[in-house]
Amino acid sequence: MRIIIVGQGPFGEKVLEALIQKGEEVVGIFSPPDKRGEPMASLAKKQGIPTFRTALMKDPRVLDEYLALKPELAILAFVTDIIPEKILNIPSLGTIGYHPSLLPRHRGASAINWAIIQGDTRTGLTIFWANKGIDTGSILLQKEVEIGPEETTGSLYFNKLFSMGIEAMVEAVDLIKQGKAPRILQDESQATYEPPCDDRVASIDFAKPVGKIYNLIRGCDPQPGAYTTFQGKRVRFYDAKKKPLPAEEKGGKVVAIEKGGLEISVQGGIIVVGKLKVDKGEKVGPIEFAQSVGVKVGDRFGN
Sign of the C-alpha dihedral, residues 223, 172, 52, 67? Predict the structure, then answer.
């Protein structure tokens, strides 16, 4: 089966590596021309696989290259670009993609972030048949995982969904080769779509209860980093924990600065922040942070 892989980063590289080890016929790979595409392109070149570096999949040259490769299947292994429908439809067996949620829940570019921000206790991954919609194609297979109470977007992806996604891609290819790959329509009544998790949604509102704030910090860790302000400087929080205790103080007040965490009083408890970063600086511990910006017990974050 002639396979094209479109992807980037460590996930694209590892999917390619897994399919090579399985002896699959990968006839070409497409990856961005910057450092995001380098790991995958480097591996492909070592294996003698035709390699195409393109910034945009809508580039007319991509259509010509696809047609010349005569693919039976295309695999989208971590793709942030929009793939034109005419490209998706070239492979005779179709195009499949990986999405880190249980579709149709959490469609969009920041599925892992939003699962944590919204307090989900379970999530997973979906291998689906790509179409012109955003994560709307029929489901081929799904895998489910638990979201631990202290899990962040980073730990959930790298400790669970990354390796599971590679295994799921290999399984999906096997099902397609055997002619046993399902096409299960998504239930649109259960669909959710969220915007990219960036600074437009990462601002901490200290009027909210401890659970909401804690989930926002976890969901934005490591990127973009949930933030507040102190003396006009933007401060991002990481490695957070929560103490669900009665808290009488108005939200945002610093109640302790210890080696193990900077403690902030909020509605219904305490947020304990293990690492902090000011503007474009480096992440530092609570004591170093307090010394560098002059934070002391009794000060308040936010406006």
Answer: negative
Range of the domain at 268: 210-293
Other CB atoms within 10 Å distance of the CB of residue 259? 9
Q: Same domain, yes or no, for 163 and 26?
A: yes
Q: What angle do CA 166, 170, 174 make, to 5 degrees?
A: 165
Considering 160, 190, 220, which residue would you say is the last residue of a domain? 190
The span from the first CA to the last CA of the chain, in angstroms, equals 59
Q: Considering the entire predicted model, what is its pTM?
A: 0.95
CATH of the domain at 59: 3.40.50.170
Reading the block at residue 236, the tokens are 């991002």
Per-residue pLDDT tens digits for 59-108 = 999 999 999 999 999 999 999 999 999 999 999 999 999 999 999 999 99
Q: Work out the number of other CB atoms within 10 angstroms of the CB of residue 108.
A: 17
**Statement to judge: residues 124 and 232 lie in one domain:** no
Kindly state the tokens that stand for 15: 């999917």
**How confident is the prediction for the chain on average, in pLDDT?**
96
Q: Which of these, 216, 259, 211, lies nearest to 236 by C-alpha position?
A: 216
Look at the block and give the residue holding tokens 């990481």: 238
CA nearest to 128, candidates 98, 162, 83, 169: 98
Cβ(81)–Cβ(168) under 8 Å?
no
CA of 215: how far to CAs of 152, 176, 299, in Å?
9, 38, 23
Tell me which H or E stretch contains 100.
Answer: none
Is 172 contained in some domain? yes
CATH number of the domain that 268 lies in? 3.10.25.10
- For residues 145 and 164, give the distance between their C-alpha atoms in angstroms, rounded to a whole number: 10
In angstroms, how far apart are the furthest CA atoms of the chain? Answer: 68
DSSP-derived secondary structure letter, 104: T
273 touches 264 (CB < 8 A): yes
